[in-house]
Write a structure and sequence with these properties.
Layout (H helix, E strand, L loop, with lengths): L1 E4 L4 H10 L6 E4 L16 H16 L3 E10 L20 H11 L9 E11 L5 E12 L15 E3 L4 E2 L5 H7 L1 H18 L6
Parallel strand pairs: 1-2, 1-3
Antiparallel strand pairs: 3-4, 4-5, 5-6, 6-7
The structure holds inosine 5'-triphosphate.
């Protein structure tokens, strides 16, 4: 049994493979399908974008496709950067530029008003079949400066008060027990087990 992750983001691929590693399935990603073009994320919500990616990749590969649309919602910015998280500092911006832009936007705002949440929506689409969708959230605070080198994206400036650390200071095993991605995938995992593995049907 195979599924394909509808992403080329290596940070996401590493985490999703780790979280799903106890399922008896082979996990591919778009890095294994170099001919599939960039998929335009035209949606206004995480759900819409996750469905666009999963449906397109299921159709093009003929395999069940799992898409992750995720981002950071900052309370005092009314949920920005949200669905624009990957391109907050402009099209093609890297993680460092996005983090710098966010810290600039929040300059002068005290820690108690820097609440934020990572959001992850996972869509699973079966070729010529149904799509399933689940969401996970992880709350934190945007720190005053970056710290740590694990993870990706906004992890170096996402501070977790319970741990006294940024997400980028937590090893992958720890991030993968508490993250927005883990919470969404946990629900998708039970669904995969129930629908396809326990039932012995395959996809
Ligand atoms: P794909 O669409 O190909 O999957 P992408 O990087 O464009 O890759 P998104 O559109 O879902 O993905 O944007 C997600 C962005 O949100 C990502 O680039 C990070 O900047 C941020 N993000 C998501 N999950 C994160 C995490 O666990 N830690 C830090 N930042 C995260």
């Amino acid at each position: 049994m195979q599924i394909v992750l509808a992403t080329r983001n290596r940070g996401k691929i590493r985490e999703i493979k780790y979280i799903l590693s106890d399922l008896p399935i082979e996990i591919k990603s778009l890095l294994d399908f170099p001919n599939i073009p960039e998929i335009e994320e035209k949606g206004n919500t995480f759900e819409e974008n996750a469905l666009i990616k999963a449906k397109t990749v299921a159709k093009l590969t003929g395999l069940p496709a799992l898409a992750d649309d995720s981002g950071l919602a900052v309370d005092c910015l009314n949920g920005a950067p949200g669905v624009y998280s990957a391109r907050y500092a402009g099209e093609g911006a890297d993680d460092k530029k996005n983090n710098e832009k966010l810290l600039r936007e929040l300059e002068g705002i005290p820690l108690e008003r820097r609440g934020a949440a990572f959001v992850c929506v996972i869509a699973l689409c079966i070729p010529k079949g149904n799509c399933y969708i689940e969401e996970g959230k992880c709350k934190g605070v945007i720190s005053l400066s970056p710290r740590g080198s694990y993870g990706f994206g906004y992890d170096p400036i996402f501070f977790l008060p319970d741990y006294g650390k940024t997400m980028a200071e937590l090893p992958l095993e720890v991030k993968n027990q508490i993250s927005h991605r883990y919470k969404a995938l946990k629900k998708i995992k039970s669904l995969i087990r129930k629908l396809f593995i326990d039932a012995g049907k395959g996809f």
